[in-house]
Amino acid sequence: MRRQLWGEDVVRTATFGTWQALSPIDIDLTHTHLHLMITGKEGACGLIPGGDGLLQWWFDVRWSPSEPRPTAPLAELRRRFGHWASPVPEVLAAAREEDLGFFGHHWNRVRPVWGQGRVTLIGDAAHTMPPTLGQGANQTLEDVWVLGRELAKGGDLPVRLRAYEKDRYPKVSLVSRLARRSPANWRIPPAIGRLFPESSQTIMLSRFSNRLTAVTG
What we know:
By secondary structure, this protein is of the alpha+beta class. The protein folds into two domains: 16-105, D-Amino Acid Oxidase, Chain A, domain 2 (2-Layer Sandwich), CATH 3.30.9.30; 108-213, FAD/NAD(P)-binding domain. It has helices at 2-6, 73-81, 88-94, 124-127, 136-152, 157-180, 190-193, 198-213, and strands at 12-24, 36-40, 43-51, 54-62, 101-107. 25% of the residues are buried.
């Protein structure tokens, strides 16, 4: 449907890709409800307990489809990230090659109008974006909420669909632009980071995230 509306080659590659896995890794973090996101000049690492002794872990690295994949990706990750602070070395030491998978990040420019006549787009079809903000599913759910609200008003269907698109465009386009720039890999300069305790940084990040996902009206 998107190709019918917008033509071919709408979705483009972003600058990062992700190596990820869900593995039985026995470290302290695996048995908690904590989620760690660690960034550095080599990329970014995320760690989330998956329950039953499993840990979801991933590494974001710069990527281009034209670059060949490493023949031994786990060895490459250990070389690149093995010197990072604990628990990154422990995770890499316990990781298994067979659990590892890769996906490249993609995006498309969000357009002010998503449909035509009685047709519209929703979710990734309208706004494919990298996972760096964790907003792909969130923005889709907000699409559903706003679309349902507009349809409940009744009246001319194409008018209601265009109203849905107009309502969603400003916020989704902002989120898409931020996700494309890979904020998970932004790094606060040490001099600035020391001015703000980690608790304050967490509060600011939470407030920023809430602004991205708030639906009003």
